[in-house]
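User: For my dataset I need records formatted as: sequence, then structure tokens, nothing else. Please produce one.
Assistant:
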Amino acid sequence: MKEMLKLGLTLAIFAAVACVALAFVNNLTAPTIAKVEQEKANAGMKTVFADADTFEEVAGFTSTVENGVTIDKVCYAIKNGAKVGVVVQATGNTYDKATILVGINADKVITGINFLAISDTPGFGQKATEPAFYEQFAGLSATKALVPGTDFDGISGATITTDGVATIVSEAAKIGVEYLAAL
């Protein structure tokens, strides 16, 4: 019995030291991780809205969920000090899940999309991140729901991913158009 208590106490001490070490490392690396994620998002916004000089997050924006798509944030695209469009970050279901940036100009036309994250299966689902697929969205109207096969070509063998991307982009565009109306 005494041996069991000694082993249990030793294990508890090791666990406590490990927890403190993990907390320390997390606190040390959290700002760097946040900075890298912000840089990735800024680079993505510049990709989907190349004409903009800077991006300004909409003040007071509250995340919303519509048709299973979470609108994470909305940023105004700014050129020469004037708001010329929006970039919407949205997360939703594909075969698994994807987070996509959608740029929309003042003419209510999609300027491009960029995947910040996609966890679909390697092979078919990951083909959504290939330029042959995502470049099709540039120039499409942001005022209507997108239909695979009509508005853009889907990914052969990845219908669920294709439909999911269409839903995410459509919902993001709908929110973007609402914010464009306020310009």
